[in-house]
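Tutorial, part two.
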Amino acid sequence: MIELDLRGEVVAVSVNHRSMEAPSPTHVDLDSFYRAYQRFATLLQEGQIELTLRPGELVAFDNRRVLHGRAGFELTERRHLQGCYIDMDAIWSAARQATSK
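Running the prediction step on this input gives:
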């Protein structure tokens, strides 16, 4: 759910309650796990931002650093969503090359 790098810094947060599976009870204290999971789920509800995009508007975010989802909607008009993905290793590599010249 929370991925850390070698320094203990958060790299990614991934949550999907529908495919959540309890950890093996031989490796984890399940009571502690579920208390922590419930607290985490509560924290996810705090600080929410809700956007309604208008035609021509764009929202961009780091998919590994921002938890996101959408509310249900009634299909009353045509909708279009275009996804775009960037390989961050390629971006960081290009930035290092540009600054080393």
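The chain has two helices and two strands. In part three we will examine how such features are distributed along the chain.
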